[in-house]
Amino acid sequence: MHDARVEKVDLAAVLDGLDEFWSQRVVGEANGTLLKVAKGTGSTLWHSHDDQDETFLVMSGRLVVQLRDRDVTLDPGEMFIVPRGVEHCPIAPDEARFLILGTSITSNAAGGKPAWSARPASA
């Protein structure tokens, strides 16, 4: 049986269409988990998520997830899970593109999104 709602997703095309850094776009949902893409440059703010773990899977560029006791550097094809309640600060020295898995959108001020990210990425 074919479900017309099931289609492949071109992640690169979705990322190309993002006009803000550190903003997440939902590209799918499976088993209660949202699959979101984002791109980042510079730094977010220190924050934590008390309601969910946050998984980062880097597609291109380099993402450094700062924790209070160490830095975790992620290159393309690498992933890291930040456990719920753990304070972290993602940094992208240059533009990084990544997939985030979690139960809800976290790209807001409480999720560490910096105020400057609201300006278009192309500016």
From TrEMBL:
Q: Which CDD domains match?
A: cupin_YdbB-like
Name this protein carries in UniProt = Cupin domain-containing protein
Enumerate the spans annotated as Cupin type-2 domain: 35-99
Residues annotated as coiled-coil are none
Q: What PANTHER family does the database record attribute to this sequence?
A: 16.7 KDA PROTEIN IN WHIE LOCUS (PTHR36114)
